[in-house]
């Protein structure tokens, strides 16, 4: 199975280890009218033992290929939501940011988009990976 067009990697910089078990959601902007934006959920996932979520696809119906269910579109906005509070609570720690939302634009839908996230209970940082 090929990897999804959007993947992520979460590292817990406070302990120097991958963040396993972080719920992840991929969303696509549907409407930016008025004062609020509306996003549609495309897929849900959870980071593995190495903090990676490489198969961020929706569930496929019988006879469908998961790879055909998400096709990125040029000029569209997407968002990856990381539920960090659930992760920190599972390790017996409190955190300031209950989730992290990273919104990005897709200039070229044939490229792969990797979103690394470094977290600690009171901070986070990200960049475009490869």
Descriptive notes:
There is one protein chain. By secondary structure, the chain is mainly beta. The protein has one helix and nine strands. It has one helix at about 85-90, and strands at about 5-10, 15-20, 25-30, 40-45, 50-55, 75-80, 100-105, 115-120, 125. The strands form two sheets. Strands 1, 2, 5, 8 and 9 form a five-stranded mixed beta sheet that branches. Strand 8 (about 115-120) and strand 9 (about 125) form a beta hairpin. The model has no long low-confidence stretch (mean pLDDT about 90).
Global geometry: globular
Percent of residues in helices comes to under 10%
**Beta-strand percentage?**
35-45%
Structural classification: mainly beta
Number of helices: 1
Distance linking N and C termini: 19 Å
Flag low-confidence runs. none
> Order of SSEs, N→C?
EEEEEEHEEE
Secondary structure tally: strands: 9
* Average pLDDT level: 91
Strand and helix map with partners:
Blueprint: E1 6-12, E2 17-18, E3 23-31, E4 38-46, E5 52-53, E6 77-82, H1 84-90, E7 100-105, E8 113-120, E9 123-126
Parallel strand pairs: 1-8
Antiparallel strand pairs: 1-2, 1-5, 3-4, 3-6, 6-7, 8-9
Structural descriptors:
mainly beta, 41% strand
Summarize the structure.
The protein is mainly beta. The chain has one helix at 84-90, and strands at 6-12, 17-18, 23-31, 38-46, 52-53, 77-82, 100-105, 113-120, 123-126.
């Amino acid at each position: 199975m090929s990897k999804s067009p959007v993947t992520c990697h979460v590292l817990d910089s406070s302990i120097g280890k991958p963040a396993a078990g972080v719920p992840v959601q991929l969303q696509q902007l549907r409407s930016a009218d008025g004062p609020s934006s509306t996003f549609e959920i495309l897929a849900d996932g959870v980071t593995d033992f190495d903090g990676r979520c490489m198969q961020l696809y929706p569930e496929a119906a019988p006879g469908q290929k998961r790879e055909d269910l998400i096709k990125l579109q040029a000029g569209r906005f997407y968002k990856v939501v990381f539920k960090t509070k659930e992760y920190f609570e599972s390790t017996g720690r409190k955190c300031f940011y209950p989730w992290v939302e990273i919104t990005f634009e897709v200039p070229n839908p044939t490229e792969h988009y990797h979103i690394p996230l470094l977290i600690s209970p009171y901070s986070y940082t990200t960049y475009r990976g490869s």
